[in-house]
Design brief:
Elements: H1 16-35, E1 39-40, E2 46-48, H2 49-56, H3 61-66, E3 69-71, E4 77-80, H4 85-94, E5 103-112, E6 124-133, H5 138-155, E7 161-166, H6 170-186, H7 193-199, H8 215-219, H9 230-246, E8 251-252, E9 264-271, E10 280-286, H10 290-293, E11 301-307, H11 308-317, E12 329-333, H12 336-352, E13 358-360, H13 367-377, E14 381-385, H14 387-392, E15 394-399, E16 407-410, H15 414-420
Parallel strand pairs: 1-5, 7-8, 12-13, 12-14
Antiparallel strand pairs: 2-4, 3-4, 5-6, 6-11, 7-9, 9-10, 10-11, 14-15, 15-16
Helix pairs in contact: 1-5, 5-9
GO molecular function, one term: histidine-tRNA ligase activity
Keywords: Aminoacyl-tRNA synthetase, ATP-binding, Cytoplasm, Ligase, Nucleotide-binding, Protein biosynthesis
Catalytic activity: tRNA(His) + L-histidine + ATP = L-histidyl-tRNA(His) + AMP + diphosphate + H(+)
Length: about 425
């Protein structure tokens, strides 16, 4: 017997029983983003490796350890996208979307990182996000955060906290970088090997360490907020005022630096304590220099990304029900003539009641077997068509999920009867 082929570790199938929750979440995201005037951008999952090295930064875990990178037959280095911001910028530059114009876009799709799989963290994972270009003021920062806040309310998610910080301008951050390096050198004996390596190349990432042995040193480190340039401070103060006016609560986290090199000024994360160590469900910020860094003309940028698996886990953790995608109606057909008539009836109902999900029995089977299939399908009603119904020109409607009474209606009156029935139509 041939060996059974398994999926790649950390890359999972999304099974039919799970897909209803995915479709509910993705549909909610699409509707909400569109309501705010954002338009969808779809980018390839495979990009030139240089794109991520130049955008994310050479001295990051993603580039150093996690990217799926290979040489194709032409010798070109290609990488499965580990995130989508760089791809959106590349697409914007390549297709002339960014120069001298504002853009509000959104995306959704799979990303790839070769890291240790754990609950809520996979090697192929799904993200949705929004990106904005050419809007320099804090008003767009506030809008982007408001979009994410509204998503939690729409989904019914509670107990999430908005953490906020500012990284200042590139110039202010470079000055702070020297101060931080000097401080870290004074405590080098406490730093782990990863922190020592990053201390001179990407010292802000040291502040993001989860090593408990370094917690006191990190807590006592100089704060970037104390080294902001005047323009960044004014930008941050205005953002906080706008969030206050909109009633969006937040916590200032001076240690929030984000994991990618391209961020500046506003950075934020939505976090929860209900998912263990994988507590961040949405994160983003401003990246005003990235477009120019990737070869475009100077253009401001801002966005966020959210992990769909983690949001689904949170919906499950908080016992938030999602709409089922079971059929509304299962058509049971007993007899050869009924099977022919039943399939025709199914198509007629789909034409006249397109909001309903209708499943027809296939492969015949006894009446008892068909009713078991109807019940297993999750349908709310069974429409039964047999020899008796055919001879009398009627169908039998049998409730499967409620205490309603079984009844018979004429074939001609079926659409009207179903229209009166309280289906959700989703």
């Amino acid at each position: 017997m041939p060996k059974v082929i398994q999926s790649i570790r950390g890359m999972h199938d999304i099974l039919p029983d799970q897909s209803a929750a995915w479709q509910h979440l993705e549909g909610t995201i699409r509707t909400l983003f569109t309501q705010y005037g954002y338009r969808e951008l779809r980018t390839p999952v495979l990009e030139p490796t240089e794109l991520f090295c130049r955008s994310i930064g050479e001295v990051t875990d993603i580039v150093e350890k996690e990217m799926y990178t290979f040489d194709d037959r032409n010798g070109d280095s290609l990488t499965l996208r580990p995130e989508c911001t760089a791809s959106c910028v590349r697409a914007g530059i390549q297709n002339g979307l960014l120069y001298n114009q504002q853009q509000r876009i959104w995306y959704i799709g799979p990303m790839f990182r070769h890291e240790r799989p754990q609950k809520g963290r996979y090697r192929q994972f799904y993200q949705a996000g929004i990106e904005t270009y050419g809007i320099p003021g804090p008003d767009i920062d506030a809008e982007v955060i408001a979009v994410s806040a509204r998503l939690w309310r729409t989904l019914g998610i509670k107990n999430v906290e908005l953490q906020l910080n500012s990284l200042g301008s590139n110039e202010a951050r470079m000055q702070y970088r020297e101060v931080l390096i000097e401080y870290l050198k004074q405590h080098e004996d406490v730093l782990d090997e990863d922190a020592k390596r990053r201390m001179l190349t990407n010292p802000l990432r040291v502040l993001d360490s989860k090593n408990p042995k370094m917690a006191d040193i990190i807590a006592a480190a100089p704060q970037l907020l104390d080294h902001l340039d005047d323009e960044s401070k004014e930008h941050f103060d205005r953002l906080k005022m706008l969030l206050d006016e909109m009633g969006i609560e937040y916590v200032i986290n001076p240690r929030l630096v984000r994991g990618l090199d391209y961020y500046c000024r506003t950075v934020f994360e939505w976090v929860t304590t209900e998912l263990g160590t994988q507590g961040t469900i949405c994160a983003g910020g401003r990246y005003d220099g990235l477009v120019e860094q990737l070869g475009g003309k100077p253009t401001t940028g801002l966005g966020f990304a959210m992990g769909l698996e983690r949001i689904l886990l949170l919906l499950e953790e908080q016992n938030i029900e999602v709409p089922a995608l079971a059929p509304h109606i299962y058509i049971v057909m007993q007899g050869e003539e009924a099977e022919t008539s039943g399939l025709t009836l199914s198509e007629t109902l789909r034409n006249q009641l397109p909001q309903l999900r209708i499943m027809s029995n296939c492969a015949s089977g006894s009446f008892k077997a068909q009713m078991k299939r109807a019940d297993k399908s999750g349908a709310e009603y069974a429409i039964i068509l047999g020899d008796n119904e055919l001879s009398e020109g009627v169908v039998t409607i049998k409730p499967l999920r409620n205490q309603g009474e079984q009844c018979q209606v004429s074939r001609n009156g079926l659409v009207e009867q179903l229209t009166k029935t309280a289906f959700d139509g989703e």
